[in-house]
Design goal:
Layout lengths: L1 H22 L23 H4 L5 H11 L5 E6 L2 E6 L2 H10 L27 H11 L5 H23 L4 E4 H18 L12 H10 L3 H12 L1 H7 L6 H21 L6 H10 L3 E2 L2 E2 L2 H32 L1 H17 L6 H6 L1 H13 L6 E4 L4 E3 L4 E3 L4 E4 L1 H4 L19 H5 L19 H18 E4 L24 E6 L1
Parallel strand pairs: 2-9
Antiparallel strand pairs: 1-2, 3-11, 4-5, 6-9, 7-8, 10-11
Helix pairs in contact: 6-7, 6-19, 7-13, 9-10, 11-12, 11-13, 13-16, 13-19
Length: 497
């Protein structure tokens, strides 16, 4: 009996000690006069995210709306304090003015479990700077103009696909994903992905596999982001060897084949080959097969997900707002008449309303819902007198900001006129962050924009999109995903005009 009491007391003592261990960290924000939701040991403020009630973007939107007058809201990831920045001027400081102090995204990388996590999006400042310089040439306007015909060729394949499905209800996300996969295959890998022609295309299988919402994917995202200590211990059981092996093999085989046969295509693979041929070390950075393949991964993920998400959401909005679709089709028709029906780099550039539609779609449906930064030295937020130590993380709730009626009256309304030149000038530049800002903005933003615009132009020049009985007009979001993904997909009827 005495032994049982001793065991019980020991358990109670451990629980009490653990409670105070976690709770002892929870005065970080209150001691600085920063408001926020009350944290609860042992998870702090992330329990709702881990349980799937919110994804990070919708959780930050909830906080944003609950603390509308607070420039900074303080929360805790387990014991770690996180600064949620709501004030646009402070966001501008973090992304641009004081970028040198926030050059680190603060993204955890687990090279043992996720060898391809060492990509330009995630990398720490040292490797990021070297790769940003080396990879930027492939995304210049001149390079995009030279390779523009590759995107148009893929849109022609999409046109042939649609001919077989005229007046049918189509999974628009799947259509957009196939188009994006074909573009990325030829633009980045120099290979024909055949996603639109072949249902069993290996590239499409990998893309579908990478973004499938399942327990291993959710586990990697949630544990890796919110419980890194635990993930380091058990993350190996969630390894995505299928994606890793595919990209490593494709990268090595393509690089070796081109070098052996002296093939030059001036594409992304050639850029990586140039980096590899400079030696094993560049600016004290080791050049490995994993590092090179990781850059192909982020090109694949970024180009694939951004395009499929933005293109499908744009068509969804145009199906609901037929007056916008009619106006855009008129602009497309007028431009194509000038080029004998050919989609050209300059004709896309001239379509001002298409550009407005594109940005309004990103405003309502950004592919990423939040940004993360980590200060590399002690930092005091301007106009607040709030100081934080080095390595404090900052979360920027871009999804919440882009739905704030203070900046976007009637934010639920799809209104491309928000992006007229006059309206842009009259709005705070940080009110729209779908493509990022500052030196660590999206390196492929221009490429992604042309990719989407070509797809939209090709489709609307010949077809009309309409809502149907399978269209989910509630547009409920998948709360377990890190990206903005509709729970029930996007289904529209596509009819020849």
């Amino acid at each position: 009996m005495g032994v049982s009491v001793e065991i019980l007391l020991a358990i109670v003592a451990v629980i009490v000690l653990l409670y105070y261990y976690f709770a002892s960290a929870y005065n970080f924000w209150s001691s600085r006069g920063i408001k926020g939701p009350k944290p609860s040991p042992p998870l702090g403020n992330i329990a709702e995210i881990l349980m799937g009630k919110h994804n990070p973007g919708t959780y930050l939107q909830m906080l944003y709306n609950e603390y509308p007058d607070e420039p900074i809201v303080g929360i805790y990831r387990v014991r770690e304090p996180i600064a949620c920045i709501n004030d646009l001027d402070l966001i501008k400081d973090v992304l641009i003015k004081d970028f040198s102090k926030f050059v680190d995204r603060g993204t955890e990388m687990y090279e043992n479990h996720e060898p391809l996590s060492i990509n330009i999006f995630n990398l720490e400042p040292k490797r990021w700077r070297m790769l940003r310089t080396k990879l930027s040439p492939i995304f210049t306007s001149g390079k995009l103009r030279d390779m523009f015909h590759l995107i148009v060729n893929c849109s022609e394949s999409m046109g042939k696909y649609l001919e077989k499905h005229d007046n049918e209800v189509i999974d628009i996300r799947e259509l957009s994903a196939k188009f994006a996969t074909d573009v990325i295959g030829v633009y980045a890998f120099g290979l024909k992905a055949n996603a639109l022609e072949d249902e069993n295309s290996l590239f499409r299988q990998i893309g579908r596999h990478m973004f499938e919402v399942k327990w291993t994917t959710a586990g990697r995202n949630l544990l890796g982001t919110f419980l890194p200590t635990i993930y380091r211990m058990i993350g190996y059981i969630m390894r995505d060897d299928k994606t890793h092996d595919f990209l490593i093999n494709v990268t090595k085989e393509t690089l070796e084949y081109r070098q052996k046969n002296n093939i030059v295509r001036n594409d992304f693979i050639d850029l990586l080959l140039g980096i590899k041929n400079q030696g094993k070390m560049i600016d004290d950075v080791e050049i490995t097969d994993n590092l090179l393949a990781a850059q192909l991964l982020i090109f694949f993920v970024g180009g694939f997900e951004t395009t499929s998400s933005t293109m499908s959401h744009t068509l969804y909005e145009l199906a609901i707002n037929q007056h916008c679709q009619d106006r855009l089709r008129q602009e497309i028709t007028e431009q194509l008449e000038k080029t004998n029906g050919q989609i050209t780099y300059d004709s896309i550039k001239e379509m001002k309303y298409l550009n407005q539609v594109y940005h309004e779609s990103l405003r309502k449906h950004p592919a990423l819902m939040m940004f993360t930064r980590r200060c590399t030295e002690p930092y005091t937020f301007a106009r607040t007198n709030v100081s934080v130590p080095a390595n404090t993380k900052v979360w920027i709730p871009l999804y919440a900001i882009q739905w704030d009626p203070k900046y976007w009256p009637n934010p639920e309304v799809f209104d491309p006129e928000r992006f007229s030149e006059e309206n842009i000038k009259n709005r705070h530049p940080m009110a729209f962050l779908a493509l990022g800002d500052g030196p660590r903005n999206c390196i492929g933003a221009r490429f992604g924009a042309y990719q989407v615009k070509v797809g939209i132009t090709k489709l609307l020049s010949e077809y009309k999109v309409e809502v149907c009985e399978k269209t989910d007009l509630t547009h409920e979001l998948n709360r377990r995903g890190f990206l903005l993904v509709p729970k029930n997909g996007i289904h529209l009827r596509v009819k020849k005009i």
